[in-house]
């Protein structure tokens, strides 16, 4: 992976402060990241209903997740580089507005092709949004607080799984999937207003001077590689989690509450990461991915019994709640590139994993059935764990 960094000496932004001073701004970023993930992941919860509307199979409908993620994976770094000279806050607000546009198109889509086009707009937006969101945080707080601040700001992504996707899924199940996307469009406009009011503007100069050496670049490469493998494994299985619950005997009306259960458990994983990743990032990563693998293996062994599937899914997704924040903090702390570009590489590699995982799951589904997916998912996450444990510079015992 080729990375670059600014050649000029950069200054700490004047707005730099503590968590308490910028808590409102961080929470507005959390709401925006909640919106972003809900928009991205909602087809997972409504996959059967969307497929039935357009008379297509679950495996084809699942590719809506892949399309979105492919846009992010391919455009995150180029868009971040291309917009580096633009003011941060107006650019961030523009991405939130584009989420509203994407969701309106999806809600009104008369054909599957139009729906896919709306998702492509959302994917392009997402490619830039999380790069900006991750890069914004080091401009607001001191270096020692970056981990906790990232856990707040991008922890909204976990809230998307906890609140956004389950509630929107339940709404879609009761009133139709188009109503869910209409609601997301309205939420996008509300989020736009809150971010505009609460988030302070910052300079687009990097808050620290990146370290331009082989060690930093190698560390960032390791973070990106581990992140890619972990997300490949996660979404090989998670893309079809609603289908998994239904196959294990859950009623359609219970899919939303089950996703809510999984998301609420993610609060525990996020809280553990927020508490420890500023102190013990390596141990935090090992615990998170290790427990996730064990839970997925239990799920595979227990399928198609409903109770083991529910318990294992709750633990698996609960543990995963803190994993994105760990990768984000470790990428920024490599100092190999400016914060937005570090965020772009994390964003791109995560969505490479989301797209690839959805594609792997879709390809395996007709061959192995649902019962084969957990074993492949566990193996891929295991590879991600192995990379993180071997890369001591990228995932240090203590932050540097």
What secondary-structure arrangement, pairings included, does this model have?
Blueprint: H1 23-54, H2 58-61, H3 63-82, H4 88-108, H5 112-136, H6 146-153, H7 155-175, H8 177-198, H9 214-238, H10 241-247, H11 252-276, H12 281-302, H13 306-320, H14 323-333, H15 339-368, H16 373-390
Helix pairs in contact: 1-3, 1-5, 1-6, 1-7, 1-8, 3-5, 3-15, 4-5, 4-8, 5-15, 6-11, 6-14, 7-8, 7-11, 9-14, 9-15, 9-16, 11-12, 11-13, 12-13, 12-16, 14-15
Q: Calculate Rg over CA atoms.
A: 20 Å
Q: Catalogue the unreliable spans.
A: 1-15
As a percent range, the share of strand residues is: under 5%
DSSP helical segment count: 16
N-to-C span: 22 Å
Shape estimate: globular
Main structural class: mainly alpha
- What's the rounded overall pLDDT mean? 86
CATH superfamily name? MFS general substrate transporter like domains
Question: What can you tell me about this protein's structure?
Answer:
- 76% of the residues lie in helices and 0% in strands.
- With 400 residues, the chain is an all-alpha fold.
- It has a single domain, classed as MFS general substrate transporter like domains (Growth Hormone, Chain: A, Up-down Bundle).
- Helix 6 (146-153) packs across helix 14, helix 7 (155-175) runs antiparallel to helix 8 (177-198) and helix 7 (155-175) runs antiparallel to helix 11 (252-276).
- The two termini are 22 Å apart.
- Mean pLDDT is 86; it is low at 1-15.
- Residues 25-396 form the Major facilitator superfamily (MFS) profile domain.
- Keywords: Cell membrane, Membrane, Transmembrane, Transmembrane helix.
- It comes from Mycolicibacterium komossense.
- InterPro entries: MFS, MFS_dom, MFS_Efflux_Transporters, MFS_trans_sf.
């Amino acid at each position: 992976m080729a990375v670059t960094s600014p050649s000029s000496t950069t200054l700490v932004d004047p707005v730099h402060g503590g968590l308490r001073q910028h808590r409102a701004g961080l929470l507005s970023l959390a709401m925006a990241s909640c919106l972003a993930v809900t928009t991205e992941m909602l087809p997972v919860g409504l996959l059967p209903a969307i497929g039935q509307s357009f008379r297509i199979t679950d495996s084809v409908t699942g590719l809506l997740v892949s399309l979105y993620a492919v846009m992010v994976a391919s455009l995150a770094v180029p868009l971040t580089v291309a917009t580096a000279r633009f003011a941060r806050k107006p650019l961030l607000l523009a991405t939130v507005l584009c989420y509203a546009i994407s969701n309106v198109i999806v809600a009104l889509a008369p054909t599957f092709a139009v729906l896919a086009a709306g998702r492509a707009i959302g994917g392009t937006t997402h490619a830039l949004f999380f790069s900006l969101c991750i890069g914004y945080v080091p401009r607001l707080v001191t270096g020692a607080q970056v981990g906790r601040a990232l856990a707040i700001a991008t922890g909204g992504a976990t809230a998307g799984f906890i609140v956004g996707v389950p509630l929107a899924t339940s709404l879609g199940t009761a009133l139709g999937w188009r109503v869910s996307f209409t609601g997301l469009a309205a939420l996008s406009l509300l989020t736009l207003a809150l971010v505009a009011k609460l988030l302070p503007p910052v300079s687009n100069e990097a808050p620290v001077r990146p370290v331009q050496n082989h060690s930093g670049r190698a560390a960032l490469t390791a973070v990106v590689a581990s992140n890619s493998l972990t997300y490949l494994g996660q979404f090989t299985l998670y893309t079809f989690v609603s289908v998994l619950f239904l196959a294990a005997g859950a009623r359609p009306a219970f899919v939303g509450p089950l996703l809510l259960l999984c998301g609420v458990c993610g609060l525990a994983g996020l809280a553990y990461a927020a508490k420890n990743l500023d102190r013990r990032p390596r141990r935090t990563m090992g615990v998170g991915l290790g427990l996730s693998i064990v839970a997925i293996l239990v799920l595979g062994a227990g399928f198609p019994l409903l109770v083991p599937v529910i318990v294992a899914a709750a633990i698996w997704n609960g543990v995963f709640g803190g994993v994105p924040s760990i990768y984000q903090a470790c990428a920024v702390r490599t100092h190999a590139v400016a914060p937005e570009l570090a965020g772009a590489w994390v964003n791109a590699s995560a969505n490479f994993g989301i797209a690839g995982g959805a594609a792997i799951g879709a390809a395996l589904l007709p061959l192995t059935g649902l019962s084969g997916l957990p074993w492949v998912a566990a193996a891929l996450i295991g590879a991600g764990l192995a990379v993180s444990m071997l890369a001591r510079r990228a995932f240090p015992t203590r932050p540097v």
